[in-house]
Each structure stands twice: as structure tokens, then as C-alpha cells.
Amino acid sequence: MTSLSSTSVGELWADGHRLPAGDALHLPDGRSYRVGLDPSVPAGFRLLERVPVSAEEVAYIDGLVEVRLEDGGVLWGGEGDHGSQGFAARLTASGALVWALFLEESNPFTRVAVEGPQAVFRSTSGVVVRLGVEGPGPA
After folding, report:
1. Reduced to 3 states, what is the DSSP secondary structure of residue 14?
2. What pairing do the DSSP bridges indicate for beta strands 62-68 and 57-60?
């Protein structure tokens, strides 16, 4: 991980598939929200408070699984710098970030499926998260 100066998540993504390394849901317009895993809710996590991106640490991510969408976009999941980290993302047909979820203790996401309007990601440790395919928040 490397330190991050003031920048947007969209810029980080475009510059080498990097994400802030903290449990958060990120949008390319600069909004980021801290999240907490919670298997008792349908999404598998709860949105908490909005957090600034500028003070975060950055993780390089590696994709391990993808599903192509009818619009040419992609649901993409994988891992971060450390084995405990996982990410789930929705990309446009051109590869631009629509939303990304980064978790430090989920383990890598290695399975993804589309179930109606939801993207369902499963990690190697059994963490399951559901997000709206078309929208960034939990479905």
C-alpha cells in the first residue's frame, strides 16, 4: 500500500486499478462511504458514514473473476495487496468505474453472479455481498 494524496477514486482506478484500502464503497465522483460487514442484512454490509478519500491508504487490486453484462460492462471481483482483502466492482463497457466495494477482511472475491437487478459476490472465506448492478448502493 502507498499513501494517497488528494485525488478521486475514479482517478485512482484509471491510473492502475487502485482503490483506497479501507472498508468502503466508492463512487468515481469522489463520494466514499465506510461500510461494515453484516450478514444479517440482505446486502451483507451496512453503509456507515461518508469518508474522505484523501487520507486513505491505497491498494493495488487484482481481478480474479468477471461477468460480462448485456450493456458491455463488467462485474469484476478479486483481491487487494494482502490475502485478507477483497474487492467487488462494476465497470462500464469502456472500463470506467461505476462503483467499487473494498473490504480488508473479506478475503478475495472469486465468484460473481447476476441475480435479477443484483450483483452477488462471494469470497473465499464465505463473505457474500449484494449490490445493485445499475446503482452503487446495496440492492
Report:
1. helix
2. unpaired
- Cβ(133)–Cβ(90) below 8 Å: yes
What is the pTM for the complete model shown?
Answer: 0.89
25 within 8 A of 137, measured Cβ to Cβ: yes
Residue-wise pLDDT for 47-58, tens only, equals 999 987 754 588
How many Å apart are CA 130 and CA 139, to the nearest integer?
6
CA distances from 97 to 41, 76, 84, 112 (A): 25, 10, 23, 17
SS3 content of the chain, % helix, strand, coil (to 5): 5, 50, 45
b/e string for 86-107 if b means 16 or more Cβ within 10 A? bbbbbbeeeeebbbbbbbbebb
Q: How many CB atoms lie within 10 A of CB 67?
A: 17
Strands (E), the chain: 2-3, 18-20, 24-26, 32-37, 45-50, 57-60, 62-68, 74-79, 86-91, 97-103, 109-115, 118-123, 128-132
